[in-house]
Amino acid sequence: MITLSRRVRVFALARPSDLRKGFEGLSALVRQQMSRDPLSGDLFLFVNRTRRRAKVLLWDGTGLCVYSKRLEKGLFAAPWRDPARHELRLTTTELQLFLEGSELVGRMRLSPEEISDKDLAVALPR
Fold it and tell me: Has residue 5 been placed in a domain?
């Protein structure tokens, strides 16, 4: 599995994808369908219509990587349940569970949001 930190964002395209596409075709889907930059360092998940295959596109700093998985039994969850959405945001843990064939039944935030610089600022007394 890909080793990831919490800072890595994961986006799933919320419609079935033609997984015959390679680097260029998946990059075009990221740009055109998701309005995102494939060279951002984010991970992009694609699932085919039959939900037996999935691909992850990732820029590792030196080049694009495509990871592919085919389930031998069962189906991947359908990230396109909500037709109004163009993408679905996942955590890295959810991506790992998804690629193992787990269902996306609901989300419950178990860990706090990422801490930003403004959260760390301390006001000095005057």
Answer: no
